[in-house]
Design a protein that fits this description.
Chain lengths: ~240, ~240, ~240
Amino acid sequence: MNGANVVTLTTDFGLRDWFVGSMRGVILSLYPKAQVVDITHEIAAGDVRAAAFALAVSYRCFPTGTVHVAVVDPGVGSDRPAVVVKTDAGFFVGPDNGVLSWALREETVHEVRRIENTAWMRQPVSRTFHGRDVFAPVAARIAMGMPWQQVGPVVAGFERLAWPEKSQVLYVDRFGNAITNIRTKPRCVTVGGRSVRVVDFYQQGARDEPVALMGSSGFLEIAINGGNAAAVLGLRVGTPVEVD
Amino acid sequence: MNGANVVTLTTDFGLRDWFVGSMRGVILSLYPKAQVVDITHEIAAGDVRAAAFALAVSYRCFPTGTVHVAVVDPGVGSDRPAVVVKTDAGFFVGPDNGVLSWALREETVHEVRRIENTAWMRQPVSRTFHGRDVFAPVAARIAMGMPWQQVGPVVAGFERLAWPEKSQVLYVDRFGNAITNIRTKPRCVTVGGRSVRVVDFYQQGARDEPVALMGSSGFLEIAINGGNAAAVLGLRVGTPVEVD
Amino acid sequence: MNGANVVTLTTDFGLRDWFVGSMRGVILSLYPKAQVVDITHEIAAGDVRAAAFALAVSYRCFPTGTVHVAVVDPGVGSDRPAVVVKTDAGFFVGPDNGVLSWALREETVHEVRRIENTAWMRQPVSRTFHGRDVFAPVAARIAMGMPWQQVGPVVAGFERLAWPEKSQVLYVDRFGNAITNIRTKPRCVTVGGRSVRVVDFYQQGARDEPVALMGSSGFLEIAINGGNAAAVLGLRVGTPVEVD
């Protein structure tokens, strides 16, 4: 039923401590054949929206049946629920705080279950690290093909982050490219009071010239060929962008 | 005899150069089925204690038989010995400078051997990168089930880092949580001249309120819900903590 | 014919976004048994020479037949060609901008082909992320043993970065060690107007004393035992070094 043995991880745990390694250890202890792939662990601490975006623009690269785990979880240890969402693409596992919801916007959701089965968790369950004690073992058991319905009862739905209505910057990547929520190629772009030329790829921009182009995630992005557009133009998440 | 094919790596090599990739290449060249898991490579350069702590609080997440390699090795190339320590949990491999010793505090040690067999090393052995030339190939050979006793002669013991007697901060994580050496939940905590409320999980803290809680590693930690306790309170490794 | 299932990645994509995870997802979707190993993703944005050096000093650690992918690609989306180079060591895959050329300096090149077969690419091919859409699927198909000649037509050669003639710093690593292009151990080294003692390993240096030694990559490097030589001496890529 479940063809893949791939588990992806998207977290704000960083790579400087042992948190991600611990999750991998728990997964491999239960399911030695798991292929665990990091999407990123360098989400800013507590930034649920950035994690939701990173997962949304990358999960389609993975095999059908993949178990996608996202853990940005300021409410860990409280009574906030945790969920597994089953879609055509695979499984989405995480705290029910919206971190999964942008990936699920274009998915057909088959079923949502709350994670409640303590037999599927690592014991004792800490109140500060559900990545290790809840999400890793649940993901391993789903990936290895155990009946995922055992994870807990069906629930009506999951928390959804609002998708911004107005055109704006949604994410700034390591190159300083400012990725917007705009899905179609415009003729004109204005951002930070400045008109920006629309091009097809980075090197069409002159040196130091801000340009706009349809990026690899399917969204318009503002970039500078060989430079850092966000730093130069003062762009950050939420900065308005005008098009056409 | 050796059930696991997992090798963990804990180093100060960082991820910006090719050092970790080289270790993985050496391991996979010898043992293509190895599952190599990073605990962390972002230990501050030469910080043996931080690496010892990271390994101590994470190795229990891995399968029995795992080969744990820790390389923070300021004495590389000198005549400092290197060791393999066999316990119920698996194998611990590294320079004999104490980096393994905090993980081994609660382990029953079966045997300690010095790494001397040059046939188990990558040739020629450099004098600056034993992670690649000594520890990686030794770990691969142990993981693949070669008789580990061939690594070198039995020795009486291994170097132990002193575990601090007085209550203090032992480690500061990426969230700014200050993890102490205190193993039991106290009623009152004072740190930096400030009384800190004891709670059960992060979100029980009010905004900007420092709290103390039993963390996922089994130690008391000082945290701020959504904030950076170490930065706000000026906590660092060695800062005294008063309890009860 | 192709014994290995290892794919290495050397890029400037960083680990804070989803770029590397996306490449891994594409590779695993095509070839679930691939072993994908990161050499590094923290090459400074657009620094083709640093990536060329990182690959050159690490590829020999990997099994024969490994597929080495290097993507530092300021010209992505333009008509710059991309190539696969077959040697005794395996396959080298990337944009034809010199990023592969320092690894290939000591290799016997069997054949060079331009990547043109769109059936080997992920569709639609974006104009900003060939790591995901071109290089990852090409690497996966080569690693899984598909006839690599299908990738595209034979071409006469590949772009070569000049190897610096004069003695100089080529790379500064995370420890601040300044790695030069000097391959033989000298008697005297002068750098930054300062005479530097030649030793065999780091700890032979006194505290704060700059030393020179033959490093693990086979090149002379300038180091400070427990310190950061590049920061203290003001060394950077291109700084001249005088020997003997």
